[in-house]
Amino acid sequence: MKNKLKWIGHLTGSIIVALALFFNATLGNYQNKVEPSQASPTENYSHTLTYIPIEMDYDSSQYYISGFTSTVTVELSGSNRVLLQGETEEGTRSFKIRANLRNLEPGTHTVKLEAVNLPTGITANIDPSTITVQIGKIAKKDFAVKGVVKTEQVATGYQVDKVTVDTTSITITTDESTLARIDHIEAIIPDETALKADFSGTARLQAVDSKGNVLPVSLSSDETQMHVTIKKK
Q1: FRET label pair with 143: which of 20, 94, 150, 218, CA 20 to 30 Å apart?
Q2: pTM for the whole structure
């Protein structure tokens, strides 16, 4: 009888230990299944936008800026798909790319670009992240317009007899150093033109130095009408 009770005691103890091990293993497996789900990363979305204009923040009444890239590529990222979609559409977009030039003196500067007015949870990667810009004191002056026809724009056996333009004078806005380099303002017709008859049409205006190099300026008008009379040699 004593041995039987002892055997029952051992059996009961074994059952208790087995149950303890079973519940411990089951709980461990449950935790292993739950924890990865709790720790799984939030899904992230991205969209790349090209030709996003740069907003130049400076005093345009005092300074003239030139020599900079006017657009950038922007990659937007975020977990909120609706917000991200809103920023990809030009009509609903709230963010802007800005270059802050407010505290810079005249000269050439490398400026870091920043994305402003981004919704919370949306980030922006800007390419390029910086731009080089030339800042100078603003200057204005009126110049006469000269119609120019290049030799290669006249067909073989013909020559230019007379050139006139509808715009005789134009106002140039630029920085002081560039203004001093301007030799004249010329009206030019498309390069592919090969004239063998009289021409009347749109001509593009540009400021050039004494060597014919085009200078960075703003013109009160970008175009004029030019009239060219052609005759045989």
Answers
A1: 150
A2: 0.72
